[in-house]
Amino acid sequence: MSSSLSVYLLDVAATRALVGSCDEQLLETVRRSFGDDLARDDDYFSSEIEQGAPTAYEALRAVVHGGPFSDDKNHAFQYGYAYRRLCELTGSFLDNSSFTPHRGDWLSTVDQGLAALGVTAVSVEEFSYGSGLPTPVPRAYTPGCGEWTPDRIAEALGQFDATKRAVDASGQAPPLEPEVVDAVMMCFAWMRRAQARSGFGVIGFRS
């Protein structure tokens, strides 16, 4: 079974602040902009909804109002997808061609490539976890969510610059497979775009 990443460039703090904002205008904007997507998701998850899971819009409304959320952990996935929809609305979708689709431990492999270049401040495997979901959004295995804040991106790019200086001095670059190099370079492209805009970072979802 394959997985995918959805990665967004956005103002991380402003996006997190949408959770619990009780912004009815935002909800109406989502309803107008993503009405077909909401209906399509409800059709896809119809069996789960029949068993008590919230609809896509109900989950979105709960996230924007900071609750109430279902007590059933099997329904938590809907709130993660609702937060992803907010990121889609407010952010810019980033090229994910090195990560969609992917199988097995590919994200860990890319992290090893980053580490070989001295970069440990960010992790693509983090997008598999729920650590990026703002409180009080319930966590679920799918979708995973992680975030790279501006500070962590600045640190990661600084780590990479230090490695480049060391490579230039020694003439020896870490041996990496070409597909790993492509994925790592994509990560740096994401980070450079974020660094170019004050307060911007990256939020990614694995599903």
Notable traits:
about 210 residues; alpha+beta; 4 strands
Percent in strands: 5-15%
Q: Quick one: overall form?
A: elongated
Q: What is the radius of gyration computed over CA atoms, rounded to a whole number of angstroms?
A: 18 Å
Give the helix/strand class.
alpha+beta
Unreliable sequence segments: none
Query: H/E series, N to C?
Result: EHHHHHHEHEHHE
Question: What's this, in brief?
Answer:
With 207 residues, the protein is of the alpha+beta class.
Give structural notes.
It is built from 9 helices and 4 strands; from the N terminus they run βααααααβαβααβ. The chain is an alpha+beta fold and 207 residues long. The chain has one domain. The longest helix is centred in the last third of the chain and has 21 residues. The chain starts with a strand and ends with a strand. 37% of the residues are buried.
